[in-house]
Write a sequence for this structure.
């Protein structure tokens, strides 16, 4: 019988070994394609950046020394229309404030309800076009219900955001809660240690709406949750929201100051001989921003998110994701958003001995 | 009332007929000439109809000893199979869950075992199969793309006989005979896989080996499926029968893993009674249950009726559990356990009445009604236990009670000597969640006789489907849900027009046809969520997005019997299938199964009374797949500037222009099969079957990737570079050559 088992195992192993193989195949001209990639998030802020770049064919060799050939941003034609009227677009030869080098940007806020159209051309590729409507702002308010400082665990606080969901139209919301910890390291003489000390922004746990948490989100993880997170923004459509006033509640946890100590040490400067700090101060602040997203932007985020968490699609076992884009003849997303922010608000001010910070 | 009225009008003395005549009345009535031929190729008015008798399945290739209805149909033109070996069934650009499968007239919701490796139809008792791709008669409805109407054999009324066979994966037993000779018969068949039997010693060996290696782990697993068909038929007369049919099919998969660990002797607080045990396991069951009572009667030479009540249901249940237990001094000091349950149920209880009435030499009416009570039930539950804490149970469920009423009427008319028209209308009313959907499906098929053996046919069909399969993958998994149309989700709809020429020659031994079609589909639904094999229960309406599709193409088939022992078949399909889901992409893009060319070549030959063989070759363009095929420059990072480790990295983001942008390598394979038969002295026939799937071991791709090649080097300035120097496209194939054999006896 033992011999039989051995044969069976060997047979199964041989079958497995024979039963898969990888091989190369020619995919024709597919990887030689190139087109225009656009990424533009037009908002009610004063400066809006539009990135327009020629994509690289997949078969192209990419070397850092060829940076000029890699980052082709020169357009042969560019037109931006606001409700049919021309809008001046600038090009950033160098990085200016929040505008990265090589980007296009506009000055002046876009207003809710405006229809914005982009047309752009580049040498050797098809012209592209896209349009979006700047969504309406949201009538909202927020409230911090509780803030508890637990020195040896997490800081927990609750925040509720109330806003009006308009009837008969599809709305898309994004909520961002940022936490900024201003970490400062002090030497024994009370001076700031120059080697440590950085500001960090760290987003919180996802919000839950005021209905009961559902089972799919637990079984499937956040992937199936109605609220999903992308780039630290929690997004949802209004399919589960009621018309009129809605409340979204956070039950958020903040990692203690020790966390930031680790981060600060990693990101510190090069002045290693500046002495050992004895105290660390963590000034924690938060900022809440509520976005009203255009349908295009919401879809873009959703598809980016789906792509990131969709290994089944990569295996070809389910419908493709990360395909959405509203750039005709091109790739990318050109979409409107309207955001309102609370500004930075202090949560707590922690002073911890450095040894204790290290301990945690 | 309508039915009763027609009965009264049509009632007339009946003459003796045999059941073949009755079948002929029902199926192919040419009112002026009721032919006795069973060859529907020329007689039928419908386009896109293929009729297969049961012997066809037995002659073809039998993977793992199981002749398979679905895999035989997959060979036909216009049918794409999706992923190799699975029972994907994409008819003329269809979605795969838009096919109406009927077993003796009863709908079957899930038609596969083992993720699609086997179908639920046991070929041993299949008498014939009607497969419609277009020109759907009005008596069929509720699905967009095809109808697969499988009829099983009634048992022999005079003698007992049966068959038995066993192969590498399953064993089959079929037995039939009289209960009351001449008037009542039975036919039963049983099929069960036995792969769980060799799996047991394999796992025992693995567990022993792991124990020997010092691993504190034990694994148990098993899978089996089974089918049971049973039918009892009673003949009141040759034209009046009552039959009771039953089918149940079940898949069962279970797995369990147990890990444990003891305290470390090196631990200062070493406790020899300490044991931590973690168990993970699950059981998945899924299957169908069908039962029907059918009364068929010819009330006269002109009126035939079939009345039936039936029940059909599909159930699946998934139970997954996890526990973590800490013991000291034989007492549980800490415990945490979670059990998750997922259950799916769809069931119909229905009454159906179908009538066939010859009004005159030029009109043959069919009409009928169907009333259904439907239930859709889905449950998802998680139960968590922790020592010293209160147990928690989180439940998500939905339940829909729905009702459907269908009425149809069709008239097969002869207009002159050359033209025949089948015109019909089907009404479906579907009530769910307080919303009544009214659907009207017009159908028309026209046949024009070009010559004695050649006809031109055209058809137009509208089909509506109110059952939606909610699946997050292309695989036929037990996690897939069936949901009804609701107040938010409307029925899917298709419109199809087809035109073809059908001809025979050489005394009917050569048959060929060419048929073109154009089909549009609306309200198709695709999952727009993330990696999760459990489709959302409560939010399915919003997580599945709305789109449409078009499919068009032409199909060519030729069959030739050069002699009674040889059959040669060739099919060719030229097809396009496209999708438009705005949430995915702003324009039309290829459907995954947009296989432009499909070729099937088959030959059967009976060498003598003892040996017959089969050879088949299939080719189609590869499925479409989505891959990044362009790059967007992101940034260049210079690390360690001024040091000996200085290095430059360039970062790019990968993007693609549209979904399904890459076609995988062409699919092709050859299959061989040979039967060695011998009739023994006792009259029993012994059959050895040897089959080879994928003879030349073509590793057909199931997925593809694009890989980048990197070039790492140090330049003359001592700077490290990490450049992308090239790429290659790679396919993964997993199905090699599969030789199988089986042994069977017919008695």
């Amino acid at each position: 019988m033992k011999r039989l088992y051995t044969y069976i195992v060997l047979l199964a192993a041989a079958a497995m070994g024979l039963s898969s193989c990888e091989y190369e195949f020619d995919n024709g001209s597919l990887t030689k394609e190139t087109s225009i990639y656009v990424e533009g998030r037009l908002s009610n802020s004063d400066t809006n950046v539009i990135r327009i770049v020629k994509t690289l064919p997949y078969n192209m060799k990419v070397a850092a020394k060829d940076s000029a050939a890699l980052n082709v941003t020169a357009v042969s034609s560019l037109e931006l229309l606001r409700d049919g009227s021309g809008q001046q677009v600038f090009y950033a030869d160098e990085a200016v404030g929040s505008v990265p080098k090589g980007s296009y940007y506009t000055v002046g806020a876009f207003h809710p309800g405006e229809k914005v159209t982009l047309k752009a051309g580049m040498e050797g590729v098809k012209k592209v076009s896209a349009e979006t409507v700047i969504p309406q702002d949201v009538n909202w308010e927020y409230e911090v219900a509780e803030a508890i400082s637990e020195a040896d665990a997490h800081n927990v606080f609750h925040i509720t955001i109330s806003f009006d969901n308009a009837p008969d139209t599809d709305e898309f919301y994004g909520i961002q809660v940022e936490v900024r910890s201003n970490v400062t390291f002090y030497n024994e003489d009370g001076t700031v240690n120059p080697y440590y000390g950085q500001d960090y922004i760290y987003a919180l746990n996802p919000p839950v709406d005021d209905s009961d948490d559902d089972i799919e989100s637990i079984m499937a993880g956040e992937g199936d949750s109605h609220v999903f997170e992308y780039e630290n923004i929690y997004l949802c459509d209004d399919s589960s929201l009621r018309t009129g006033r809605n409340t979204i509640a956070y039950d958020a946890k903040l990692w203690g100051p020790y966390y930031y100590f680790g981060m600060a040490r990693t990101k510190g400067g090069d002045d290693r001989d500046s002495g050992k700090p004895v105290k660390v101060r963590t000034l924690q602040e938060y900022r809440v921003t509520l976005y009203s997203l255009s349908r295009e932007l919401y879809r873009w985020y959703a598809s980016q998110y789906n792509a990131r968490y969709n290994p089944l699609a990569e295996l070809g076992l389910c419908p493709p994701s990360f395909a959405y884009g509203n750039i005709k003849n091109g790739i990318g997303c050109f979409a409107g958003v309207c955001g309102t922010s609370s500004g930075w608000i202090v949560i707590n001010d922690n002073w911890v001995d450095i040894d204790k910070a290290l301990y945690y | 009332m309508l039915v009763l009225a027609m009965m009264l009008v049509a009632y007339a003395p009946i003459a003796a007929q045999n059941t073949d005549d009755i079948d002929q009345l029902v199926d192919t009535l040419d009112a002026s000439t009721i032919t006795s031929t069973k060859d529907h190729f020329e007689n039928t008015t419908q386009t896109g109809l293929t009729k297969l008798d049961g012997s066809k399945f037995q002659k073809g290739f039998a993977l793992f000893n199981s002749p398979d209805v679905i895999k035989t149909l997959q060979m036909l033109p216009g049918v794409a199979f999706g992923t190799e070996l699975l029972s994907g069934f994409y008819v003329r650009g269809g979605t795969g869950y838009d096919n109406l499968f009927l077993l003796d007239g009863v709908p079957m919701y899930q038609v596969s075992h083992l993720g699609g490796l086997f179908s639920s139809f046991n070929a041993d008792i299949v008498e014939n199969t009607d497969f419609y791709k277009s020109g759907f008669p009005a008596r069929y409805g509720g699905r967009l793309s095809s109808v697969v109407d499988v009829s099983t054999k009634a048992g022999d009324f005079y003698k007992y006989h049966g068959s038995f066979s066993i192969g590498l994966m399953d064993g089959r037993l079929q037995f039939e005979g009289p209960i009351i000779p001449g008037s009542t018969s039975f036919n039963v068949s049983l099929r069960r896989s036995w792969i769980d039997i060799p799996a047991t010693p394999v796992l025992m060996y693995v567990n022993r080996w792991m124990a020997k290696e010092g691993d504190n782990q034990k694994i148990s697993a098993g899978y089996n499926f089974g089918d049971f068909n049973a039918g009892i038929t009673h003949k009141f007369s040759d034209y009046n029968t009552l039959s009771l049919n039953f089918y149940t099919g079940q898949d069962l998969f279970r797995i369990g893993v147990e890990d444990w660990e003891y305290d470390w002797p090196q631990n200062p607080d070493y406790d020899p009674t300490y044991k931590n045990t973690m168990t993970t396991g699950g059981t998945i069951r899924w299957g169908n249950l069908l039962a029907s009572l059918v009364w068929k009667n010819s009330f006269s030479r002109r009126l035939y009726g079939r009345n039936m009540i039936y029940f059909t249901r599909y159930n699946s249940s998934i139970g997954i559990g996890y526990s973590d237990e800490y013991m000291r001094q034989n007492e549980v000091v800490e415990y945490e356990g979670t059990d998750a349950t997922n259950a799916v149920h769809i069931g119909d209880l229905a009454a159906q009445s179908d009538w066939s009435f010859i009004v005159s030499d030029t009109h043959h009416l069919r009409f009928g009604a169907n009333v259904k009570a439907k239930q859709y039930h889905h449950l998802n539950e998680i139960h968590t236990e922790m020592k010293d804490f209160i147990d928690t149970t989180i439940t998500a469920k939905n339940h829909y009670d729905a009702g459907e009423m269908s009425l149809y009427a069709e008239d097969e008319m002869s207009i002159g000597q050359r033209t025949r028209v089948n015109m019909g209308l089907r009404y479906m009313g579907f009530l769910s969640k307080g919303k009544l959907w009214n659907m009207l499906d017009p159908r028309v098929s026209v046949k024009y006789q070009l010559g004695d053996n050649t006809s031109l046919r055209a058809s137009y069909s509208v089909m509506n489907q109110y059952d939606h399969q909610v699946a997050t993958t292309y695989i036929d998994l037990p996690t897939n849900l069936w949901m009804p149309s609701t107040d938010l989700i409307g029925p899917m709809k298709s419109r199809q027009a087809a035109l073809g020429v059908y001809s025979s020659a050489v005394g009917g031994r050569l048959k060929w046809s060419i048929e073109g079609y154009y089909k549009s589909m609306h309200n198709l639904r695709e999952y727009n969520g993330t990696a999760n094999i459990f489709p959302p229960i409560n939010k399915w309406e919003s997580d599945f997005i709305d789109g449409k599709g078009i499919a068009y193409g032409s199909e060519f088939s030729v069959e030739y019997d050069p002699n009674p022992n040889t059959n040669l078949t060739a099919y060719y399909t030229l097809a396009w299938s496209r999708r438009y889901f705005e949430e995915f992409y702003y324009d039309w893009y290829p459907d995954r199964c947009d296989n432009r060319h499909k070729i099937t070549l088959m030959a059967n030959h009976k060498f003598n009374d003892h040996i017959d063989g089969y050879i088949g070759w299939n080719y189609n363009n590869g499925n479409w797949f989505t891959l990044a095929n362009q790059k967007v420059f992101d940034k260049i990072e210079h690390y360690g500037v001024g040091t000996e480790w200085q290095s430059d990295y360039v970062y790019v983001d990968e993007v693609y222009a549209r979904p399904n942008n890459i076609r995988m390598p062409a699919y092709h394979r050859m299959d061989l099969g040979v039967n060695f038969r011998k009739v023994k002295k006792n009259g029993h026939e012994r059959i050895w079957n040897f089959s080879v799937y994928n003879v030349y071991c073509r590793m057909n791709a199931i997925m593809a990737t694009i890989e980048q090649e990197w070039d790492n080097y140090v330049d003359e300035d001592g700077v490290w570079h990490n450049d992308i120097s090239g790429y290659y496209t790679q396919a993964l194939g997993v199905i090699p050559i599969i030789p199988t054999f089986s042994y069977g006896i017919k008695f």
